[in-house]
Amino acid sequence: MGFFSVLGDIYQIMKHTFRQVFKRPFTYFYPFEDRIYPERTRGRHIHVREVCTACAQCVRACPVVAIRIDKEDKKFEKDAALYFDYTRCIFCGLCVDACRFEALFHTPVVDLSEGDREDLIFGPDKIETLDRDPLEWRGRRFR
Amino acid sequence: MSVLLQFDFWQWIQGIPQWIEGILYWIWGIVKWIIYAIWDFILWLWATIFNADNFFFLFRAVLFPGLIWVVLALIWAVWGTRKLWGRIQDRRGPFHQGKYGGLQLFADAIKLIAKETIIPDKAKRWMFRFLPGLLLVVVLLPFAFIPWDTVSAVNGGWAIADLSVSLVLVFAFLTAVPVVALLAGWVSGSKYTLIGGFRAANNQFAAEIPMIISTIGCAFLASSLSVFDISMAQTNVWFAVLLPINLATFLIAAIASVGIFPFDAPVADSEIIFGWRTEYTGIYFTLTYFAEFAEQMLYSALIVALFLGGPNGLPFLPGPVNFTIKFIVVFFFFVLVSSSFQRLRQDQIVKYCWKYLLPLSILNVIIIMLAIVYMPGLMLPLLGVG
Q1: Which residues touch B65 (CB under 8 Å, ≥6 apart)?
Q2: Which residue in A21, A135, A136, A138 has the most chain B C-beta atoms within 10 A of its own C-beta, making it the best mutation to test that interface?
Q3: Cα B145 to the chain's mean position, in Å?
Q4: How far is B91 from chain A (nearest CA, A)?
Q5: For the segment A44-100, what is each residue's pLDDT rounded down to a tens digit?
Q6: Mean pLDDT computed over B280-286
Q7: How far apart are CA B151 and CA B322, in angstroms?
Q8: Which spans in chain B are helix H?
């Protein structure tokens, strides 16, 4: 009987929707929460200056000229300061492959949005550390 | 010579200040008259408002179960609807403004009001400006007849107004809503708005008859056309128990009449942009948007009053609390239905409403009449007659 089977379908749909109300949402509370990224995610770089030899192979390898090296800016014996331009970077990973001294790595941090284009050029102060201010919302602290 | 002497130049020039003074006093008299008139009006208004009887009636009509409360409830209802839609679709809904996004609607309203009001060249300007406000007024007025409490306002309760034909009056107001939609679609001067307007009229054409016949059962059982009396007749048993099919048909017909999913053909946004509301921007769009939710709220309140016992419920709770609990449950059901089903076609709406809703609603009335005639010992005590 068509009429009653349709009523049964309506009941099934309503039951599903009703249960859906009391489920947790699938969405993350971005930017305060984020998914766990895989270890090999090619996110922003980190530069370890202690083992850097200022060989500039990363600069040579970069296909989009996103890396600039400043050899005068020395902190240790023979390191250099790197400037990453994330307006240009395509996260291809060639610079990390080119580094033979394990001084340059990708990190799984991918949220790089800034309010200003200039802030996307990561100087030595930003590229050498992952520290940043924790995100705060209504007194709750995230990430 | 004697003719000339009648005009004494010196006397004339001496009299000029007196003449100016006279004019000033004359103007002052007009101003004073206006000021006294305004002041008398204020005094009259003050005395009228702060007469003890009038004051509590006005308080009920304007503040608590009346206009302000309904508008605030409307705003939170939109918030709750969006939150529920979000939850049903595995999202979070609004959460940035205020606790749990509770102030999101105020932010939205401020944004919409601040936007530019665009009136199309082909629109009939006066009607185009007038109709959204009329729509909201027409939808908000019937809230005066919603029985919020078991005691009417004249007897110190919270129910605002009681009229012997308030059920008919409420439907008279609600019938005007798709007329406004049709007119708005017409005067906007766009083909999409016109199609949407006719679709709104078609929805009403389909849903009105089953809806009104569904309420006939309640009016029969309570032997009254007053919404207040109908809800008061449910002290022994809710009419939802005696008229379950009518409750379902009224709910479906009400959804079809409001024009939300699955009967949202008048504003089908993937077919005819936004139906009869396409050309409305800024404050006018806000008004039509709120009117849609106000209509949902009104139908929820009517379902509570007609079928779910109105303010009768748990005896230890005051009437308005009972009413509001049931009201929230019914509104929740509205949101649930509107986010569950896909859109129906125009001919399908008319077909379902006339082929299924209409016979079902008549069927339940006939069943209950036969039950009263053949099983009076069972039925009459339930209705509080026997």
Answers
A1: B146, B148, B149, B158, B159, B160, B320
A2: A21
A3: 10
A4: 5
A5: 899 998 898 888 899 999 999 999 999 888 888 888 899 999 999 999 999 999 999
A6: 88
A7: 13
A8: 2-5, 9-49, 52-58, 67-88, 104-114, 125-140, 166-187, 191-222, 227-232, 239-242, 244-258, 282-306, 319-338, 346-352, 358-374, 376-383
Q: What is the pLDDT of residue B271?
A: 81
Q: Read off the pLDDT of each residue in B77-81 and give the average, rounded to a whole number.
A: 90
Interface predicted TM-score (ipTM): 0.71
Among B204, B159, B196, CA closest to B304: B159
CA distance B90 to chain A (A): 4
Q: Domain segments of chain B: what residues?
A: 17-50, 69-383
Partner-chain contact B90 A17, CB within 8 Å: no
Interface test with A, best of B336, B357, B360 (most A CBs within 10 A): B336
Which of B234, B118, B124, B131 shows the shortest CA–CA distance to B188? B124
Q: Quick one: closest CA in A to B95, which residue?
A: A29
Residue contacts between A and B (CB atoms, under 8 Å): 35
Which chain A residues in 27-66 lie under 8 Å from chain B, judged by CB atoms?
Answer: 27, 29
pLDDT in tens, B129-162: 899 999 999 999 898 888 888 877 677 777 777 8
Distance from the Cα of residue B255 to its chain's centroid: 15
pTM above 0.80, yes or no: no
Contact between chains at A21 and B87 (C-beta distance less than 8 A): yes
The partner residues of A136 in beta bridges, in order of sequence, read: A141
Tens digits of per-residue pLDDT, A9-36?
889 998 999 998 888 888 887 777 788 8
Residues 91-120 of A with CB under 8 A from B: none
